[in-house]
Design a protein that fits this description.
heterotrimer; A mainly alpha; B mainly alpha; C mainly alpha; A: 2 domains; B: mainly alpha; 3 helices; 76% helix
Chain lengths: 400, 102, 165
């Protein structure tokens, strides 16, 4: 039972021994083993996303008081579980239309780049106790850098389509994503300060109390700005299906559109997994020490919970306009994020972790709750002032 | 171990390509891209020297970070200037900006 | 050929090839995309030099910031679609001569000097050391604060210059 418990950590030395037995020199055997491991790791998000797309369609349908894909014959499986396979086959058999005046190279490379970056994020996510693609000491920083790298492919898609509306959609999407990176990075800084390291494995191990109970405001900030980064409702204007018909990838058809769609869901799932790792405790849970593979199960459950909240926002909240979105970011989220970082730094220094296991965490929790109450109070006061201005404006306008 | 000379030669080649870009291109934005290449070459040099002479100190990496900050500031202001130029003169070709010439 | 040398050659070819494409492509948008590829290559070189923080910072600042700025500027100043505008000015041969001469001179200096290279090991907490050095009063806190003021000034200046009157 012992080697089976930890079988993922045992596969790699076994494979390396096998390859060295054939006669490959040491370093190249390691490269082959790592290559196979990377290849296998890249399948995890792909397969997870296939079932997540199905779950998304069913749940959104239920929220909108309809049933969604269901079993209309033997083909898509019971409850239409394999609906996504049917969609993929349909997309593969569609004609690949390229606009006549489009820039062929740029047009064709854009979906490849965005899919590559969506998969690259998974290299640093800790899937279990010692199971991670590569425990970089700059883990979360690498993830954020790749998120900003995916903006380039948006611009390539918008430019290569040779379509005014695609270009406008791409420019708006990039402006949106750049703006929302600021509160996202500031909330990650708060987490890193408390955990003491940039490495995702270390952040997971530092959470004997999940960080969402220690810094709820930070978790909310991170979740909201990640929603905007990924372009999910209510920040859906990048590809508002009912308004600008898919925005920056309007000219794509067939499998290239499929790649954009897939990369978008992979980004959403990556956000859920990163939120679960940073704030909900990652792979921690009962019985993880004895059976390390259970860590992946806990991580999957937690990220499905966060994904459900994401779908909840998607199905119920109305869309924001671009000026409302940017207003919200620069006038509300960024100041709150800055104040949050200052408060976490001050409280973390004033109540050092050596003063007792629960002292620092409850002090941080108290400070966060105070910040949330202060922000709510400021919002109530501002709302009352705006309403008074509206009412007096109406009273001035009506006698005329 | 990769000898230090390889990194220095690579940085020198990158710097000279950036120099060629600055001296021979007409479009203002293309000149700025040459400048960015030169700054990257300088950074590679700095980090290579840090790694090969004193890796325990943090000043090499910090120096490279300051070069990043300066490059970002310079790119922002340069591109703002080019956009303002486009609005008033309707051209980005820097040879045609010759009001003060002779 | 150790693995490191193979990786260095791959990243070097990517960087230099992309840089050559940047300075020779007529279409400025394509040149910008090749510039992004060159930045990726340089980030790979930083990883080889065991400076992972700088590699991620390179991706963030250059690919996710400066390249986006450059592409926005190209899109807002579109005159490259005009085929009558040449890509180069009339002294491009002189520029090429100067660049090659400078490269040759620098290469000669590099190869004929005895560099005092004693590659020790990078300490495992180099990122923590970097962070501490940046805020250490006896260290680099003054350049750090000056750099932040510089960025603020550049931000305000860029917004002011590029505003619609």
């Amino acid at each position: 039972m012992e080697p089976f418990n930890d079988f993922i950590s045992n596969i790699s030395p076994w494979l390396q021994g096998l390859l060295e037995g054939i006669g490959l020199p040491d370093v190249w055997a390691r490269v082959v083993v790592l290559g196979i491991g990377g290849f296998a790791l890249a399948f995890v998000p792909l397969i997870a996303v296939i079932f997540l797309i199905w779950a998304a369609r069913k749940l959104i349908a239920r929220m909108q008081d309809r049933i969604g894909p269901n079993n209309s014959g033997p083909y898509p499986g019971p409850y239409a579980l394999f609906q996504t396979f049917a969609d993929a086959i349909k997309m593969l058999t569609k004609e690949d239309v390229i606009p006549a005046a489009a820039d062929r190279w740029v047009f064709n490379i854009a979906p490849i780049v965005i899919l590559t970056i969506a998969v690259l994020i998974w290299a640093v996510i800790p899937l279990g106790k010692d199971i991670t693609g590569s425990d970089l000491n700059i883990g979360i920083f690498y993830v954020l850098a790749l998120g900003s790298g995916s903006m380039v492919s948006l611009l390539m898609a918008g430019w290569g389509s040779d379509n005014k509306y695609a270009l406008l959609g791409a420019l708006r999407a990039v402006a949106n994503m750049i703006s929302y990176e600021v509160p996202q990075i500031l909330s990650v800084i708060a987490v890193v300060m408390v955990a003491g390291s940039l490495s995702m494995q270390e952040i997971t191990k530092a959470q004997n109390v999940p960080f969402i109970f220690v810094m709820p405001v930070t978790a909310l900030l991170f979740f909201v700005s990640s929603l905007a980064e990924a372009g999910r409702q209510p920040y859906d204007l990048m590809e508002a299906d009912s308004e600008i018909v898919a925005g920056y990838f309007v000219e794509y058809s067939g499998m290239k559109f499929g790649q954009f769609y897939l990369s978008e869901f992979m980004n959403n799932f990556a956000i859920s997994v990163i939120t679960a790792t940073l704030f909900l405790g990652g792979w921690q849970g009962p019985f993880v020490d004895s059976v390390p593979i259970l860590g992946s199960l806990w991580l999957l459950l937690k990220s499905c919970l966060v994904f459900f909240v994401l779908l909840w926002c998607w199905g119920t909240l109305p869309r924001l306009r671009i000026d409302q979105m940017l207003n919200f970011n620069w006038k509300f989220l960024t100041p709150v994020a800055l104040v949050n970082v200052c408060i976490v730094a001050l409280v973390g220094k004033a109540v050092p972790s050596s003063a007792g296991p629960w002292m620092q965490k409850s002090a941080l929790l108290g400070a966060n709750i105070l910040l949330a109450l202060a922000v709510l109070g400021a919002l109530v006061v501002a709302g009352r002032q705006a309403r008074r201005r509206d009412v007096s404006g109406q009273q001035e306008a009506s006698p005329a | 171990m990769i000898p230090l000379e390889w990194y220095l030669l690579l940085a020198a080649a990158l710097f000279c390509m950036g120099l060629y870009g600055v001296l021979s291109r007409r479009n203002g934005v293309a000149i700025l891209m040459g400048v960015e290449l030169m700054l990257n070459a300088v950074n590679i040099n700095l980090v290579a020297f840090w790694r090969y002479t004193e890796p325990a100190a943090a000043t090499g990496q910090a120096f490279a970070l300051f070069v990043y900050a300066v490059a970002a500031a310079e790119a922002a202001v340069g591109l703002a200037l080019i956009i303002a130029l486009w609005r008033t003169r309707n051209t980005v070709v820097l040879e045609e900006i010759d009001l003060l010439k002779g | 050929m150790t693995l490191q040398q193979v990786l260095f050659i791959i990243f070097g070819i990517i960087t230099l090839g992309a840089a050559l494409a940047v300075v020779t492509r007529r279409n400025v948008f394509h040149a910008a995309l090749f510039l992004i590829l060159a930045f990726f290559g340089v980030a790979g070189l930083y990883v080889l030099l065991e400076a992972p923080f700088l590699a991620a910072a390179q991706l963030f600042i250059y690919v996710g910031g400066i390249s986006i700025l450059i592409i926005f500027a190209i899109m807002l100043t579109r005159d490259m679609m005009n085929p009558n505008v040449a890509g180069y000015n009339r002294q491009w041969w002189l520029a090429a001569l100067v660049a090659v001469a400078l490269c040759g001179m620098m290469g000669w200096v590099v190869l004929n000097h005895n560099w005092p290279a004693t590659p020790g090991d990078v300490p495992p907490e180099s990122i923590i050391n970097l962070g501490k050095a940046l805020v250490d009063p006896a260290g680099l806190v003054l350049p750090f604060e000056v750099a932040s003021v510089l960025l603020l000034v550049a931000l305000i200046g860029a917004v002011t210059i590029a505003r619609e009157r």
